[in-house]
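Table 4 source record.
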Amino acid sequence: MAADALVWVSLLAFGVAWGVTWVCCQPGSWLHFLDHPNERSLHVTPIPRTGGVGVMAGVLATGIAAALACGLGSAVLAALGGALALAALGLVDDRRSLPARVRFAAQAVAAGGFLAVLAPSTGTAVTVLFLVGLVWMANLYNFMDGSDGLAGGMALIGFACLGLAANLAGHAGLALVCAGIAAAAAGFLCFNFHPARIFMGDVGSVPLGFLAGALGLVGQRAGAWPLWFPLLVFSPFVADATVTLLRRALAGEKVWQAHRNHFYQRVVRMGVGHRRTALAAYGLMAAAGGSAVAGLSQGFSLQCGMITMWIFLYVILGRWIDRAWRRHAAAHGQTPC
């Protein structure tokens, strides 16, 4: 892929995302929806929650520019179309708080439509598995969007790794789209890194999660990478959200309700703060994504060893945070829920 196309598409996405996010930050804008803090929030003052409009504006600009530069396959277009539809629904949800069943139904429709384009002849069991996976990716990204700079940083690092791998595999359109999404996230991060002036909101987090899963499947179907690759790239979010969901489900809690029990939320609440939590998470994200890209050129046995190493690392990190949280809760007279 020509380097100049990568540069100008990325600059376009960054500029559009930065400009639209700036507009959303202005109190006089009709997109200035405030997120008021409650007992489950990590922030203490009202903050606008429509920064995802800027991200998705950058994604839309990316799709148009990439299509003009080198053309895009039907599966990539379906992924972008599904994400933009979910962004529109997310904007309504950020304004009026739609019922969970409406959101899940829309996500299932978007995932089903994408899969019908990507692999219309895939067996029923695999299709259902992929559909559930896409809906879960959309929601886990939303669950993990609760601390300054976290979701934006995962988008920047994660999609940059997908773009690099796609470029190395010779898939120019996919590489441009992933690079543009990463650049759009960078434009948003200028306003979201601590102290955040704006949050991403459902309008950004849900479609970004959907795109992470959908473009991961596009690359797998095109032969750019195996299925483990996007899972490892986004594993800091996948591990935290999945373990937390399973714990809450086993405890009989309503898993769709907001809470403050994710590992990253506990780290912030223990006094590490938003900035240091984000910086530590960036290091973890970069290590996961970098090792995933490096692992693509290795043999199967080394890839298995690398994946096993990451599983053990997440177990160790999770147990360490759990122990630290119990000590913190005991010292402050809290219930270590």
